[in-house]
Amino acid sequence: MLAKKLINRISSLPFYSPWFIIILFSVLGLIGILNHSMWRDELNPWLIVRDSESFQALIANIHYEGHPILWYFYLAFVRRIADTPVAMQIFHLAITITAITIFCLYSPFNYKQKFLFSFGFFPFYEYFLICRNYAFSLLFTFGFCKIFASRKSTYLYLAILLGLLANSSIYAFFVSFSLALTLLIELCFDSEHRKQYFSRSHKYDLFFSIGIIIFSFILTIYIVTPPVDSYLHGGLNNGWILQLDIRNLLRSIDRLFASYFLIVPHKRWLDLTVCAFIILSIVTFNLIQLCKKPLPLFFYIIGNVVILAFTYLRFAGNPRHFGHFYLVLIAALWLSSYYQDSTFFTNKLSIKTNLLQFGQKWHHIAFMIILYAQFIGGIYSFTRDLIIPYSASRETAHYIQQSHLEKEFIVASRDANMAALSGYLNRQFYYPERQNMGSFTLFKKGRQEVEQPEIFRQVSYLFKNQASQKRILLILHRKLKLNPNNLKITPIKNFERAWVDSERFYLYWVDELGAGEQGSTEKITNSPYPIPNSRA
Fold first, then answer.
1. Pairing of the two strands 487-495 and 505-512
2. What are the two backbone dihedrals, phi and then psi, of residue 437, each rounded to the nearest 5 degrees?
3. pLDDT value at position 393?
4. What's the pLDDT score for residue 526?
5. In three state form, how does the secondary structure of 278-326 look?
């Protein structure tokens, strides 16, 4: 009866109701996320939470990740409810649905714009199906925009959201910093707002709000600062670019183009130059659109400049990173709805009415083109994920379980590519890169990349020093190219149906040959490899 009433209620909703978008988004999202095969970047944080031996060890491990603590703390809470990665997916689903609900019910955009945005690439795919901490960027930014009017009487709620946003990811930290700076500028230079706030707020509201923001920012900086023995520095191993590099500058600007249109230009000068010209023209239209709203304009400029500076100086990023350019645009347009038109900039810069009308017209055209591009990208990526697994990890794990191989002694390499399998199978492997048992990967001293000859040297040592070890299940993320003389290699099955090339897996049985069967072998003496004392 309850299901029937729910169906009748849904069917009675008008097509142009925001709830139609929310319900459709939720239903499709549930289908998509239960079908999605997670990859290493999704499950490595889950493994860190699962296999860290203590709270202190968890904090120490997070330091190597280059991410703040919030996602890991929430995963620890989720794991107490259900110790399965599927629980993480359901939690992630709830985050994005909540963000889209806030957007559809409270943002100032029209119905078509809400629909296109909701099913665009970032909300419907990158920050939805792929379970990462970046979904928090949508939730806390939209939450901030929704309660922005509360700053007239208190900053406390906004400060909490900014603190949560800052501790979501480093790019969310940049957005949070830009929003906090915007609030500060308004408080310092808008006397009418300042007078209204102090007449309505509690005595220590400003003090506590500033304290929360400062503490959150310091905590983020502390956590994302890598330890001295980290050699990838949270994935940012290219160093800082402190000299002028025109090609790198164009490439950084084109990340803004990619965030709007989902096309990453090639490294050719013509591609970089044309895309930079297009995106700078669109940014100009956005500036003209916002020029009558000084504070949202300030946020749009600062948000883009901060992310652009990091992109140029440190890390070009991937879609999940430079998608925050797009989020800054949406937030700036949303915040502009809270302000009356101002002639401050138009008078100062002597901007003519014809120019304003021209810029606003083309801003609307460009904005709609962006939304349609995002929509096409979202539908395509979502559909592709239904057809082609993002990773072969889940299929491989199911095969291992169905074949009752999950309790075998498993040697897996490369370790960083095996997190998804370890998560799905809920067990550890022997990693040649670490020369020990493990699940998640931290890029620090003591871990070394290995090639296949080194893998088989370690396998041989395991056979020689574990009398009970008769055979080993070997899992590689690349096809075997070596046939050692002292080991018998039997292929089991290949799992190559995956969108991500490095998320394909190859299974082999490895048996030690008898003395009469061996050819010339390399003698292993005084090996430094520790002996795993457990098959788990």
1. antiparallel
2. -75, 150
3. 95
4. 39
5. HHHHHHHHHHHHHCCCHHHHHHHHHHHHHHHHHHHHCCCCCHHHHHHHH
